[in-house]
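re: ur question from earlier - yeah i can do the single chain one, its not a big deal. heres the input i used so u can compare w yours
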Amino acid sequence: MQLKAEAEHAGKQVRCPGCSTKLQIPAEAAETEADAGTQPKFKIPAPNLTSAGARATTGTTAPSSNHERQFGSRGGWEETDPTNANMLVSFGIAAGATILFLGFLLLFSPPQGTPSSEYSMMQYLAMVWKGHLEVNGLNTLFFFWAIVILVMKFMKLRHQKAAMLLDILPYKLGNEINAENVGSFIDHLYKLPSNLRDSMMVNRIRKSLEIFEIKQNSGDVVHLMSAQSDIDAGRIAQSFAGVKAFLWAIPILGFIGTVLGLSHALLSLSFDNLEDVKAIIGVLKGVISGLGTAFDATLVGLVFAMLVNFPMNAMIKMEDDNLNNIDSFCNEVLVPRLNDGAGVAGGDTEAVMNHLVRAVASAQSDFLVDLNALSATMMEYAANLEQRSAEHQQHVSEEFSTTMQQMRDEFTAAATDSVKTTSDHTRALAEGITALNSTLKDLGEKQIVINQTVKKGWFSRG
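and the output i got, formated as tokens:
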């Protein structure tokens, strides 16, 4: 394993980030296998590591030709959370620290009846916590919990910074990373110490190289690193949610303790004997003492909030700086060394054709994937349309049958009423004809005599 060191550290003694063994940095820079113009670095031979997953490399790793190991075949390694602290462990440590702190502080409680003017510093602090033990005790727990979380995050950050000392992309494997030697760089990452390779930087580079091994497109690698940077930034920002919640709750609890203290002090205010000046003065002294105790809770909360705020902001800045350093390394060291064949020139027809074939194959593969997805979507739409058409046809048939049955029933009822009415009229007509025939028969057997009366007058014949 090789480590990197800056020039100003020449001749100094450091500890190996993998096994903590002391190492001596050479006094003079060793010659590098990098291209001319690259920044020289010291090569520090690290001791052999016997822990699982960590061993020293000997010689040069042979490049894997024809992509013998494809993406995902190596299995990767389990990634632990690089920034979030374990809440249960931190709570247990904070609870123990709170019990020890309160037990130690209450040992200095002054004897009963001791004037406050004679309190020592520890006795004063003991009385401040004792005045609102519930509120101040909970505030103390929140304070230690937040501090423990920040300490655990700081230890994780030290681990991330230690991983940046590794020579992750050694020049002995090649000045550039291309389709022929990318497998060797990935194998080199898998041979790093297990306690250092599980870091944001190594994980990001491993994922980028494995994507490059399959896609052979530096643009895809850039997009992956950008997305992974956003994920890491979001994860770091989210890891401070608990500490920010404690920072908000601590002063609020202090104010709650003050309000409770003011309420108790005002409830104790009594002027039963207004003529006794000494009694009034005694009552006022008790109220003033209660008010002082009430404001102690706010004082404790504000002090704790200030003691948490500064380390939290310092931790935020350190983690942001570390993430920026990782982004800078990927953009300034990894990306320029990637060679996907897009820049071939000088009449290398075979290289150009190989690149074109890979580009066309990649585009065709993407097109087939998109076409299959579109075909599946269209088949789904067609199935939905056919189902809807069948449901509509069934609905129309049911409505038509219902309407025809209704029309048939109405027509039958109307025809029945018409026949009945016609039958009634015919029966009435038949009865009338029968009566008329009977009347005519009676008239045929009788004679009707008509007498004409002669009128007399001016114009009559008589």
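The longest helix spans residues 349-444. not sure if urs matches, ping me
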